Amino acid sequence: MSEVYATRRSRLRDRCQASGSATALISRPANVRYLAGAAPQGSVLLLGKTEDLLVCTGPPDDRPTEGRPDEALRIHALPGAGGDPAVAAADLAAAQGGVCLAVEEHHLTVARHRAIRSVVPRLRLTDLGGAVEQLRVVKDEEEISCIRIGAEIADQALGELLESILVGRTERHLALELERRLVDHGADGPAFATSVATGPNAGRRAHRPTDRRVEEGDFLSVCLGRRIADTAARSAVRSSSVRPPPTGRSSCTTSSSPLSAPDGRVWCPAPPTVMWTARHGRCWTPRGTFRAFQH
Question: Model-level pTM greater than 0.90?
């Protein structure tokens, strides 16, 4: 992954230099993870003039629960508690000889922006805008691989649940079992709280599972997602439209592989909504519907 992170930082640096800034300060957590891996909470990334630094409030945990930062990236830990990594990173940028620093103004607070100006008044601050978000729209090979693996894991977890006995089990029980199966098949965990809705709850958006038990003839709606590695793709992997089965027997046809659009964007199935009847124990869905991955 070190090469992947280095390539992403290089692409961002090219954008910054094209806009007249040789250094950049990344403070939004999702963007820091995209460029540096699993960083400690509150960390910021400095794309410096001479070297890149991950500035943290303290040294990273020896046994992190969500992965490690890029091994090729030097970590700069603040000496004392209470310091602001963004302010410290701006001071480091000035020490490297930078005269212009691009910052994420849409994320920095006014107080933080003023603190940076007070520490390095001669450093000209410019707006980085949504440069990192624009890079994240086009998925690289590593992200596409994680999306594809996650889609297969979700398919396996949901397929195994459909083969089990559903009648008499609660929505909460089914949601917990789906999340357990995601982990059993290799996911780091669910991307969001799994939603399982039955009967009158099946048409409700973002339904939270309850203790309602599945009855014979019920319709069930399932919405699930998974986390794989440090990829930014944390959305659901599949969707389907709801229609009655074409015959008396139910069947299941799903689609969950990401697609490539002519403009280079990766298209992925929208968040999944799968319905089936408890009487047959299987689901029927037509071909999945798709929309842009970043939504």
Answer: no
